[in-house]
Design a protein that fits this description.
The chain is built from 11 helices and no strands. By secondary structure, it is mainly α. The longest helix has 28 residues, at 167-194. It is globular and about 50 Å long.
Length: 254
């Protein structure tokens, strides 16, 4: 187990922050996990810990947002897209420069959120029907970005927010979607962790913050009105998209 108090201070704060975001908004803050944990450990260890911690969070999030909160007609198309996107992410990561695709996804999402803020309006609940094509595209894009950049939230959030689903259905569907994605990514990270067992012990030391964060996030979710919650969803979406653009852009300039 780590003995540095700074590790626990930063690690617990980061884990709580990610878990609160998952419990309140379905996610959106995991993108901050690696940069924050990298302040107290190396980036690869940070990536392994985030993969383990978000998978633990998913177990508790599924208890808070059960099957009754899932939009099953959307998941029917989103989940196959997720699997395809993760596979494409693997191939692209090996064969093609993924930074360009990540940059395009980030710019598209940023344009979507800026358009919403410029219009200053929110789609009425259930105002747009399920679109199999757009759901597949969103699922695939999320699968790709979650594999190459640990930031799969923007595309699927963009799709569900554009659909105007009710707030609990939005969060529950997002939780179900990323539970599959995070657990599909977990085996490769665990295999990396076996070579550095101290990293897995470190993740275990931070894990107790996960259920506390989910519980606090659920309280936030219940307290916020739908309009206010979706406003903050768009804020998080904008920040995540901006980070994708900046990271991909800087990587291309190197």
């Amino acid at each position: 187990m780590p003995t540095d108090p700074l590790f626990y201070l930063v690690g617990w704060a980061t884990t709580l922050l990610i878990a609160i975001g998952k419990g309140a908004f379905g996610g959106g803050l995991a993108i901050l996990g690696i940069p924050l944990l990298a302040l107290v450990t190396d980036p690869l260890s940070a990536a392994i810990m985030v993969a383990v911690l978000v998978s633990v969070m998913d177990l508790f999030a599924l208890q808070s947002f059960g099957i009754s909160t899932w939009s099953k007609p959307d998941l029917v198309w989103l989940l196959p897209g997720l699997v395809v996107g993760i596979a494409i992410g693997y191939v692209v990561f090996v064969e093609v420069d993924p930074r360009i695709v990540t940059l395009i996804i980030g710019l598209t999402t940023l344009a979507f959120t800026l358009h919403w803020f410029a219009k200053g309006r929110l789609a009425a609940a259930g105002s747009r029907p399920v679109s199999p094509l757009w759901a597949m595209i969103a699922g695939t894009a999320s699968g790709f970005t979650t594999f190459v950049a640990h930031a799969g939230g923007p595309p699927v959030s963009m799709y569900l927010l554009g659909r105007g689903v009710p707030k609990t259905l939005f969060v529950g569907t997002t939780v179900a979607f990323f539970t599959l994605g995070n657990w599909l990514k977990l085996p490769p990270y665990l295999s990396l962790g076996l070579g550095r067992p101290e990293t897995l012990w470190a993740a275990l030391a931070l894990a107790p913050a996960a259920p506390l964060g989910i519980w606090l996030g659920r309280i936030v979710h219940e307290k916020l009105e739908q309009k206010t919650l979706f406003f903050w969803c768009y804020v998080l979406l904008s920040l995540a998209a901006l980070k994708l653009v900046v990271d991909a852009g800087l990587a291309l300039l190197r």
